[in-house]
Specification:
Elements lengths: L2 H4 L7 E2 L6 E2 L3 E3 L4 H14 L3 E3 L15 E3 L7 E5 L4 E5 L4 H10 L2 E2 L11 H6 L16 E7 L5 E4 L5 H7 L8 E8 L1 E2 L2 E10 H6 L1 H7 L2 E6 L5 E10 L8 H25 L4 H11 L3 E5 L1 H5 L7 E9 L3 H14 L8 E6 L14 E9 L5 H13 L3 E2 L9 H7 L3 H11 L8 H7 L2
Parallel strand pairs: 3-5, 4-5
Antiparallel strand pairs: 1-2, 6-7, 7-11, 8-12, 9-10, 9-11, 13-15, 13-16, 14-15, 14-18, 17-19, 17-20, 18-19
């Protein structure tokens, strides 16, 4: 092991993107190869230290927290192989989704679906169930075709539908509980164009037409601005072209000046003077105009997120989404809460991953946010009460208070995951307080 690549000053403090989680691990390591990663895991086990891998810190939970060995994957990056015949790409675990998408586009290839940011590492995104919105296309993890994981004894385990299939089934969303992911193989397809149509719609109209909008569009999502009846919707569908990207000035004006700059100002002012938030929300929601553009997938699915926030998101049975959202709106209106961030709603088809939030059921997601530093507990608690009443499943990387008892009741295949965990990590080398709460021990 090369010390300069894998050891840093002891007791470094690591913070996540939102700044709500910080840890001081005993060691921070950045392996440059899978062999080095294996050595790191064996050494930690011998030293009696827990091991957790962390990506870019875009999770809001303490899923990657440890006081033991924190594995930073910034040297485990890049594309190992593109197999055009199989329609796959294999990447190192620390590769950012941005780098992956840019590289694929250069090769004339694309992922089928994406979340709304590209800053996460590939391993971090799949491990916590990162998803976008889609009528038929599911989460990033559902696009996996194979994985490579370094397990608690330091061995390198490869799994796919034909190799260690029972492990692959559950490991696609593994929460870091089964080992440290070292490589991932995704399905890809020839690059295509998407036409995005964005624009305003009233809350009553979008909720009354929700089922039709979700059925008519390959990718549908919307934002509702609390304290208003205004929503902004986005419909993405495949297009024969030609490409018509967002113009440089209009992109700067809409995405940077309004969506980021305007939200930053409104959030800062609202945090200092909560009483002005409803007026700011009305003005901000009316400032966003309709637009249509056509571009390659990652440029349509994703957008910059400059304003830092904390977030909670729940996946509900699709048929419960509108009722739950209306309950959230009614709750906000009758409460003293002042909510500066819009509420996001997306959809996903059912999938077959045991710990996927869409496992076995058509799902809709309701995500609530608050500006970083704003007291969030009262708002998130009230929303969570509504979500759990509808059988909601919390996003693994976003704030929630659920425990293993609750989660085992809403995930029919929960025991399938924990059985594989018992087999691969019986001594809980990869455990931490968060996993103890959500998985039991």
């Amino acid at each position: 092991m090369t010390k300069s690549r894998t050891d840093t000053t002891n007791r470094n403090t690591w913070r996540n993107w939102a700044g709500n989680v910080q840890v001081r691990p005993a060691r921070v390591v950045s392996p440059a190869s899978v062999d080095e990663l294996s050595q790191i895991i064996r050494r930690a086990a011998n030293d009696g230290l827990k091991v957790k891998a962390v990506g870019t810190g875009h999770s809001f939970t303490a899923a990657a927290s440890t006081d033991g060995v924190l594995v930073r994957p910034e040297l485990l990056t890049g594309i190992r192989e593109i197999d055009r015949a199989a329609g796959t790409v294999t990447v190192e675990a620390g590769t950012s989704l941005r780098r992956l998408n840019v590289a694929l586009a250069r090769e004339g290839l694309s992922l089928t679906n994406m979340g709304d940011i590209m800053e996460q590492t590939a391993a971090g995104a799949v491990s916590t169930g990162t998803h976008g919105t889609g009528r038929e296309s599911a989460s990033i993890a559902a696009q996996l075709r194979a994985m490579e994981i370094v397990t608690a004894d330091g061995s390198v385990l490869r799994c796919s539908p034909t190799e260690n299939a029972e492990i692959f089934t559950v490991a696609r969303i593994g929460l870091g509980a089964l080992g440290v992911v070292s490589a991932l193989t995704f399905a890809v397809e020839p690059v295509f164009l998407l036409t995005a149509r964005e624009g305003p719609m009233t809350f009553d109209k979008v909720t009354s037409e929700f089922d039709a909008l979700a059925a008519e569009n390959e990718h549908f999502e919307f934002y509702w601005f609390p304290h208003t009846d205004h929503c902004n919707i986005k419909r993405n569908n495949r297009s024969a072209g030609p490409a018509a990207p967002v113009g440089r000035f209009s992109g700067w004006f809409e995405d940077e000046l309004l969506s980021n700059g305007g939200l930053q100002v409104a959030s800062s002012v609202g945090r200092a003077v909560p009483a002005v938030i409803p007026s700011l929300a009305k003005g901000f929601s009316r400032a966003l105009s309709a637009r249509t553009y056509t571009d390659i997938p990652y440029k349509v699915f994703t957008s910059p997120r400059r304003v830092r926030f904390v977030e909670m998101e729940y996946a509900l049975p699709r048929e419960a989404a509108v009722a739950a959202l209306r309950e959230v709106k009614a709750m906000v209106e009758r409460s003293p809460l002042r909510v500066s961030f819009p509420v996001e709603v997306r959809t996903a088809p059912a999938d077959d991953i045991p710990l996927s939030t869409a496992s076995g059921r058509e799902s809709a997601y309701i995500a609530v946010h608050l500006y970083r530093g704003t007291p969030h507990r009262a708002y998130f608690t009230a929303v969570e009460r509504i979500m759990t009443a509808h059988g909601g499943r919390p996003h693994w990387g976003k704030l929630h208070t659920r425990d293993a008892e609750y989660l085992a009741g809403t995930y029919p295949r929960f025991d399938e995951f924990t059985a594989v965990r018992d087999r691969l990590d019986p001594d809980r080398l990869f455990g931490n307080d968060y996993l103890r709460r959500v998985l039991g021990d």
